[in-house]
Design a protein that fits this description.
By secondary structure, the chain is an alpha/beta fold. The protein has eight helices and twelve strands. The chain is globular. Keywords: ATP-binding, Nucleotide-binding.
């Protein structure tokens, strides 16, 4: 059974049609590349799955049941997490503090409770170990590489036992070595049975790590193919319109 199904989803903002009749499903433990030019509808689609937008038409289903979300906390409650391109990290805080930001662990009884730093450091360390990341819980984010920052953002999604993780341009503006590190993090999420939606302009990254690729153009889905059945040249043609549909 599919983890998430989109059935003929459309989204308009006044006269602007951002998504038009989009349908696809996501299976457990797969990496799906979501590609398209600027304005193709990728961000609107991701924000809908993440609970920021409700569809104007169509429906979402999770585990076979209708899924209605009005805000991101609803998506998180259903096991859907998003790692934004800017990562939304606090540079002046430690890795562990960023992992637990807004979800801090406490000990004692309110109003006399205090933050339980020891437990947060231990749990963050366990999450980094699961991801096989060299990131250390006490390291300050401002001293980290791009790959380590991604590890912190991904570890944060593991607190809620996520089923689906949306990653928005995770390999943009980082070095080749750090790109390899981030792609390995994505593989480890997949190996743990988590579905990853990789929103990216970087063709080599998608073909390196994804199982399927979905291509958007002008708000429509023009392809949904296994990576093994496609090629970078075909996807480029679909993005630009040189190939209408595949």
């Amino acid at each position: 059974m599919a983890v998430l199904e989109l059935d003929r989803v459309s989204k308009h903002f006044g006269a602007i049609q951002a998504l038009n009749d989009v349908s696809f499903s996501l299976e457990a433990g797969e990496v799906v590349g979501l590609m398209g030019d600027n304005g193709a509808g990728k961000s609107t689609l991701a924000k809908m799955i993440a609970g920021n937008f409700r569809p104007s038409e169509g429906s979402l289903r999770m585990d076979g049941k209708d899924l209605v979300m009005t805000r991101p906390v609803d998506a998180r409650r259903h096991g859907i997490e998003i790692v934004h391109q800017d990562l939304a990290l606090c540079n002046n805080l430690s890795a562990a503090a960023n992992v637990f930001l807004g979800r801090e662990l406490r000990r004692g009884i309110f109003p006399f409770s205090v933050l339980d730093y020891g437990r947060m450091y231990r749990r963050a360390g366990e999450l980094f170990a699961e991801l096989k990341s060299e990131t250390r819980p006490r390291d300050l984010v401002r001293q980290m590489s791009g790959g380590q920052r991604q590890a912190v953002a991904i570890a944060r999604t593991r607190l809620s036992d996520a089923k689906i993780v949306l990653m928005d341009e995770p390999t943009a503006a980082i070095s080749v070595r750090q790109v390899a590190e981030v792609l390995n993090l994505i593989r480890r999420l997949r190996d743990q049975g988590i579905t990853v939606v990789l929103i990216s302009h970087r063709m080599p990254d998608v073909f390196d790590v994804a199982d399927r690729v979905i291509v958007m153009r002008r708000g429509r889905k023009v392809a949904d193919k296994r990576i093994a059945s496609s090629s970078p040249e075909e996807v480029t043609g679909l993005i630009t319109g040189a190939i209408q549909e595949a």
